[in-house]
Amino acid sequence: MSDAVKEPSMLLQKELIARNYDAITSARETGRKVSSTFVPGNLNELLLCFGIVNNLPEINAIQNGMRKLSGDYIMTAEKSGHSEDVCTYVKADIGMMGKGNIAPNGKPFPNPDVLLLSYTGCYTFMKWFELLREEYKCPTLMLHVPYEGDGQSTKNMRDYIVKQLKEVIIPGLEEVSGVKFDIDRLREALRNSARAEDDLVWVLEQGKRTPSPIDAYFGGVYYIGPIFTAFRGTTDAIDYYRTLRAEVQARADAGLGPLMPDGTTLSEQKYRLVVEGPPNWTHFREFWKMFSDEGAVVVASTYTKVGGMYDFGFRHDPDNPLESLADYCLGCYTNRNLPSRVEILTKYIEEYQADGLLTNSIKSCNSFSAGQLMMMREVEKRTGKPGAFIETDLVDPRYFSAANVKNRLESYFQMIEQKRRGGSRAA
Amino acid sequence: MPATTAETVARCQTLFDDLDFTAARAWKEAAPGRKVVGFLPVYAPLELIHAAGCLPLGIFGGGDRMEVIHGDAFYQSYICRIPRSTVELGVTGRLDFVDGMIFPFVCDVIRNLSGMWKIMFPQVWTKFFDTPQNFDPEVGGAYYIEELKELREGLERLTGRPITDAALRASILHYNENRRLVRAVYDFRANAPWKAPASEVYLLMRAGLMMPVEDHNGMLADYLDAAEAEDRPRRDNVRIAIYGSFCEQPPLNLIKSVEMAGCYVVEDDYALVNRFLTEDVPVDGDPIEALATAYLTKSVETSCKYVPREEDKGRFHIAQIRKARAEGVIYASPSFCDPALLDRPMIARRLTEAGIPHISFKYAENSGQMQPIREQAGTFADSIKLWS
Amino acid sequence: MTAIITAGIDIGSGCIKTVLFRVDGETVEWLDKDVARIRNRDPFLLTDETYDAMLARQGLCREDVAYVASTGDAEALRFATGHFYSMTTHGRGAVYLNDRARSVLDIGALNGRAIRIDDSGKVLGYRMTSQCASGSGQFLENIARYLGIAQDEIGQLSKSADAPEKVSSICAVLAETDVINMVSRGISAANILKGIHVSMATRLAKLLKAIGATEGVVQMTGGLALDEGLVAALNEALAAENMALTAQSHADAIHAGAIGAALWGAFRHQKLALLDEMAA
Amino acid sequence: MQCFIGIDLGSTTTKAVVMDENLQVLGRGITNSRSNYDTAAKVSKQEAMIDTRLTLFRRALADVPGAAGHVDEILADLERNFRRIQFLEQLEDLEATAIGNIRGPRFEGREAAVREVLEETFRRLRDKSAALFAPGARRKSDFFRDLAGADFMQVGEAVSKAAGLPFDLILNLYDKSIIEVENRPPAGEMEAKFLRALESGTMEAGTIAAPVQAALAIPLEETYVVGTGYGRVRLPFPKEHIRSEILCHGLGAHMMYPGTRTVLDIGGQDTKGIQVDPAGIVENFQMNDRCAAGCGRYLGYIADEMNMGLHELGPLAMASTKQVRINSTCTVFAGAELRDRLALGEKREDILAGLHRAIILRAMSILSRAGGVKDQFTFTGGVAKNEAAVRELRKLIKENYGDVQINIDPDSIYTGALGGATFAARAVLN
Ligand SMILES: Nc1ncnc2c1ncn2[C@@H]1O[C@H](COP(=O)(O)OP(=O)(O)O)[C@@H](O)[C@H]1O
Ligand SMILES: Nc1ncnc2c1ncn2[C@@H]1O[C@H](COP(=O)(O)OP(=O)(O)O)[C@@H](O)[C@H]1O
Ligand code: SF4
Ligand code: SF4
Ligand code: SF4
């Protein structure tokens, strides 16, 4: 996204990411240990306690998707026997390995010292690390986070997670890093997390304004960057969110919409949408433009909740460190059952005064996608607002059919428009 | 006079073909207050359902005989078939007599289906049943015991009757017997596959998921006796194991096609629930704990279970293959099945290391074209025959 | 050991291929061959017709043939002595046509298969194209007809392309629309055909990689082996992928399956005779 | 007079509808969407204009005492003659083009023989054309490609066989030339053709010549054109003249049947389920995804495979007594599936019946996805012309949604264009 216009928060984020990649790729020289772990339910604060650098394969896949490398990686993985049908994040990751494992900064990734299998909200995580484990032969620590099948967490689930943290994860990380666990360090990190989380929630909630000063989907994926990845629990994240908040505040005060990559602000907002599902990364800009060209702004999205849901009140809690980590893992968006997801979406449509629900259904991701059609119908029924359904993929460029997506989006927008005008002048 | 194999198989076929579950409905009608509890693949503790006095009913999709109309409205084209045909069964009222549904942990598709069921059929007791992926008795075991207790309480609320430990022990005994007989059928087939064709054994197993375990035990014993006594022509087929089919089941025609193309199936993971626990569950001591321990220590390796140690991956499969003296493996998995397809490269690597020939292909429960299947299975059989 | 006559019959979805061999120990003599396009006829009746015509040409009758081996969609062929599956026979046929072949690409009207073999034609591994593919011979044939190009012109035209236009759809129906779009944008037939060849070649290279073919000669078999444009595109794709493979065709490539069947038939016949002798 | 035109550039066919300021349909035109979309749009519009003239003739003849009671006959006559003139013109063009294409190494040394075969073939085709356009004759298709093509296959094969030439050679010339001919919009003023048609009519030209000429003289003004359909982005129109095909189908169905609440449209490569409100405004819709399984083209492939016309599939399927179960509606493998079944000894009509059911089952899924079927239900798109598909649909709608009024208009294929024309009229009149 080199040619895009940037605000201070974006530059800050860019720098953070670059710094983390440098820390990862220089780990062998600096003697730091490297872990791989997933975004949902990631235990970044805990890793900080052991001085372990956090490398997130999903983020690498996204980076490779945006830089148009993923298509090639996916083909490489498929050539080595992976099925066309399975999650393309996994294949992009495995394909990247096959092609030298080069990080976005151009240097090779070191092999991880530990695979921290934070198994939250997605079945594929388990297989993904089983596959990596074959390759790296490094210790693999499984943290099994039960699914909230009945719509809430239970004491049994929480105890199970805490017990795993105590008996499996913490001893495992101690062994890998050679650092003794210090709960006060963890408390400190959690305190930092909570502060950044407050600002993040404030930013996301500005989508309730008209015009909305943020785009909670295309812009949102940037807003959640630091908190979902290697920076939660750091003061860097606190700084980032403070800066971001100031920018959003300034736009809100000026009655402006979100900043677009081309430097304009989307202030003429004809349609307000809630979006369910992850975005497509290989055609991210083109996809975004299909919305902004029509004056559509996303006021709330669920993708910005995959790495943790904060807008319903949860914060990391220094006073109950392990328990709060457990609650965090349990509460990630895809770990919630479908009735809960329907409720969340309904609430968003109402509270953010949206014109409707748009589902971007991702071929790769059963965790998100299986059941989305029913969710859409249910939300339509409850809110009376129309839904629309498009299908793309995360990082497989073969599954982005621009004409198809555009056709559906246009029809959807024209439909909302026509509805607004009512029957008399339906043109 | 005991039934001939043909008679038994015909009975099973009738049960298998019946998408209205007439037999299960009749069972429920036969006495007041009876409840039927459906369960999906792969594993659910049927002993608990049985001990609650309910009929555990296997809901394994609609196969290739069902016309799916509404099911497709719930699923995108890149999701496997079993949830859509299951939804079709639901919305067409074919499951209207089912009082409870258990959705065991297999993958995110069935996981999410549990939530859909709650929304679509609010009157049905619906339980997502999560099994632990940590196999330490102190950690995963403790969690699992609580989960089993929750399941037990749920069933008790459903029936309004407590499940006593004595009842549970009795049920475990029935299922131990069932497991023993199922193993006997598998052993018999591994010895004389021409006497127990894969399609027959499959029907026998599927039928067992639709009738009381006591009846199934009788049926299995009859079949074993009859099959032993019958003489059937033996063909120059190779012996193969089929893996990858633990959830969505292939159409019966596929199983027949594989055999037609020159393969005897001597081991498989179809309808795995009745072989999920590999040994008897002890009945002395606390029965819930016994079930939990059996799951943690004496259950099969399959794609929905984490394998904690890298070196153990695929070990179970290799042992089974050796035991059944299979000459090769067909890894046949449903299209779009992440568990099977993500596991496939790992299992394949282990098979290669062990020098066991293997091939793989995908199917859907309603696949119609068997030509590519015959061709692949046939070439595989040719190659083993000509060159092994 | 006396000389025997064996026949190989390959019933495909597009054509029926029939061959006749005389085998005497190590000496193999190819007597006759035939390709019949099915075009809406009953394949089994057509097989009877062409087979009998061939025997008549050779002055033989059905009883003179020691082993009739079928392959392809011919499990139900009544007069066959035995059936071998396509990959078994294409592997053997490829080695017969080219003893340097170590892998085979069989591309027929509907399916494509990649087969890895050893020097005796033994199958070491294979892959088939998945069901849903725009890379079938049938598709190419439809497009060519739409563009007004005869089958044997495709290859030359494709080779003359200067700016191949990629076909992106995986679905043949949608790909057809893509092609219509191209024509309307004024893309030349040569560039369109080459574009289709390129996308087929990419997929085929992927298949070859999947079976672990890394070096040596890839023998093309089946009807599309006769399409030199595809062969050229494949070689370009292999080079682009840095695969040390060379794809080669053969004028009789379409017969590979039938040849393989006839030869395995002879092998099997001798083995059975041996068993009979031992039994006697 | 003012004309409001909607053009629906579909994946297989392009349709145009002309409407007057009272929102009355004046004319409809259809053509193949082959290769050149501009041409397709132009041809369909021209066809619709021809149809418009016929409507104007009808209006003019209403006042002619001598024509009373014969208007239909006169118009049918006029149209048939007109079509035949057009057909012969195109046939002539095709012949000249094909002869011009006899060059290159393929024909070396055989040019004269090939030319003779072509000339003989075309001579016989011209002779047959009289029967093709005889009163009451049932034509296989409305498109020149199909009409000329079907006969060409038959006649050409026989002629080349007699001449000892491979038919492939001749077929290839046809393939090469038809596409060129199709991309040339019919030349010549249609007025002149109408006048010639008038002369060769059976009616005494004198009584009707004057009113027809008067109607011909009415100037037709292209007041506003709206484009829609799959290829709409390729139309040479400004953005505000383009509407999504979903909206057009919704509105078109509403114009035909104001009580419509649910629309099913099965086109060449997509199937849509649309819900509309009482004003024809779209409330919800679903389309098939990337896969074109079970759409109109599927029937096209089957027809090709069976060597039949699209019009003939439905009637054959209706003759079935025992439907075969078909699970895959993959368009590409339709032929393979068909052969598979034939090989198993199933009857053609039974397989066809199964195939039709499979298509409709898929459509039912899409309808279910779009929120089910409400009263009234309107079925549109090309496949609505297929009686076997319609029969299955009726059955399944009844089973799944009870007694719902089902509307099928004989001109249902024009629904999208009708919606477009309505949008065009509204843009100017409102
Ligand atoms: N000379 C040729 N050039 C290009 N393609 C050809 C040629 N001859 C035959 N084909 C193609 O080969 C296909 C038939 O190949 P074949 O291997 O016989 O297939 P199958 O076994 O499926 O019938 C047809 O689709 C046809 O288009
Ligand atoms: N007379 C007919 N009888 C049966 N089917 C027809 C007939 N005319 C057209 N069709 C079907 O309709 C399809 C085209 O429908 P249409 O609505 O024009 O699609 P599109 O708008 O995508 O071009 C064809 O593929 C064909 O299957
Ligand atoms: S399935 Fe979904 S949640 Fe899981 S790794 Fe893939 S994209 Fe992520
Ligand atoms: S078939 Fe596979 S993907 Fe589908 S529900 Fe079963 S385990 Fe999940
Ligand atoms: S219609 Fe196209 S996308 Fe669908 S299965 Fe067939 S080839 Fe694939």
TrEMBL record, chain A:
One of its GO terms (molecular function) is iron-sulfur cluster binding. InterPro entries: Benzoyl_CoA_Rdtase_B (IPR011955), FldB/FldC_alpha/beta (IPR010327). This is Benzoyl-CoA reductase subunit B. Belongs to the FldB/FldC dehydratase alpha/beta subunit family. Keywords: Iron, Iron-sulfur, Metal-binding. The keyword Metal-binding applies.
UniProtKB/TrEMBL annotation, chain B:
Keywords: Iron, Iron-sulfur, Metal-binding. GO terms for molecular function: iron-sulfur cluster binding; metal ion binding. InterPro entries: Benzoyl_CoA_Rdtase_C, FldB/FldC_alpha/beta. It comes from the Bacteria. Gene3D superfamilies: 1.20.1270.370, 3.40.50.11890, 3.40.50.11900. Belongs to the FldB/FldC dehydratase alpha/beta subunit family. PANTHER family: 2-HYDROXYGLUTARYL-COA DEHYDRATASE, D-COMPONENT-RELATED, SUBUNIT OF OXYGEN-SENSITIVE 2-HYDROXYISOCAPROYL-COA DEHYDRATASE. This is Benzoyl-CoA reductase subunit C. It comes from Rhodovulum euryhalinum.
From TrEMBL, chain C:
Residues 8-265 form the ATPase BadF/BadG/BcrA/BcrD type domain. Keywords: Iron, Iron-sulfur, Metal-binding. InterPro entries: ATPase_BadF, ATPase_NBD, Benzoyl_CoA_Rdtase_D, CoA_E_activase_dom, Dehydratase_Activator_Redct. Gene3D superfamilies: 3.30.420.40. Pfam families: BcrAD_BadFG. One of its GO terms (molecular function) is iron-sulfur cluster binding. The keyword rRNA-binding does not apply. It comes from the Bacteria. Its cofactor is [4Fe-4S] cluster. This is Benzoyl-CoA reductase subunit D.
TrEMBL record, chain D:
SUPFAM superfamilies: Actin-like ATPase domain. The keyword Glycosyltransferase does not apply. Its cofactor is [4Fe-4S] cluster. One of its GO terms (molecular function) is metal ion binding. Keywords: Iron, Iron-sulfur, Metal-binding. Residues 5-424 form the ATPase BadF/BadG/BcrA/BcrD type domain. Coiled coil: none annotated. It comes from the Bacteria. This is Benzoyl-CoA reductase subunit A. It comes from Rhodovulum euryhalinum.
